[in-house]
Design brief:
Radius of gyration: 18 Å
Structural class: alpha/beta
Number of helices: 7
Strand content: 25-35%
Helix content: 25-40%
Order of helices and strands: EEEHEEHEHHHEHEHEEE
């Protein structure tokens, strides 16, 4: 495998629902996400985008197929090991920020660090402060998240996703609840983090303007990636119909 690939999956299959009414949500999905690149997954509602993201984020299990992060196969790991790998290697940004509203911005960013347990209290405070400064919130460290604007809350969520220096950031409609100004600002911030940190970003979006700014765009339909577009080369590939 190419050493520059941060995240890859091959042949991902996923069924949802009960045996007598189950849905074939993912049908042999394969892709690679390289360091320093931004990938978008687009497609109609119900095509499997979020299901794929949650499986790649080790928040759900595939029924078959393989996932590799930083050249390490992780699909076979038991739940406790998956949770640790998720905390060590991945940062997840949800459409709804899921901050603890009575916690300060700084305390919210420290939550993943506490779970990983590698830093002292003073080191966690310093890292959280530095991350919040990076997202433009250095003046609101001690502000309870309930008193932050929607754009500010999403920037705290971005800082929290970066808490443990992840190799891959996964984002599910990260700008979906923001106005145009804050949406553009959040996306530009994510791109800057990817470029400077040599991190990989895979995001699900319905926003064509956001997708058009990504390095790669993967179009999904009926549980499959049916087309992939590279902005750098202009190459557009279409998957063969099974």
């Amino acid at each position: 495998m190419n050493a520059e690939v941060s995240l890859s999956c091959e042949g991902i299959e996923r069924y949802l629902g009960e045996e007598d009414s189950r849905v074939h949500a993912l049908r042999g999905v394969s892709l690679q996400v390289e360091r320093g690149t931004v990938h978008a997954v687009v497609g109609p509602s119900g095509c499997g985008k979020s299901t794929l993201l949650y499986i790649l984020g080790l928040l759900d299990h595939a029924d078959s197929g393989w996932i590799t992060i930083e050249n390490e196969a992780v699909s076979h790991l038991v739940d406790d090991a998956l949770a640790r790998k998720r905390n060590e290697l991945l940062g997840f940004i949800f459409q709804f920020h899921f901050l603890l509203e009575d916690f300060t911005a700084q305390e919210n960013v420290m939550i993943p660090m506490r779970r990983l347990g590698r830093l002292s209290q003073s080191e966690m405070l310093e890292r959280a402060a530095n991350l919040l400064e990076e997202v433009g919130l250095s003046g609101k460290l001690k502000r309870a998240s309930r008193h932050l604007s929607g754009g500010e809350q999403q920037r705290v969520a971005i800082a929290r996703a970066l808490a443990n220096d992840p190799r891959v950031i996964l984002a599910d409609e990260p700008t979906g609840n923001l106005d145009t100004y804050n949406s553009d600002r959040a996306f530009e911030l994510l791109k800057k983090i990817v470029r400077h940190g040599n991190t990989a970003l895979l995001l699900v979006t319905h926003n064509p303007l956001i997708a058009d700014l990504c390095d790669w765009v993967h179009t999904m339909a009926d549980g499959r990636i049916v087309a992939t577009y590279s902005r750098a080369t202009g190459l557009h590939t279409t998957a063969a119909t099974p």
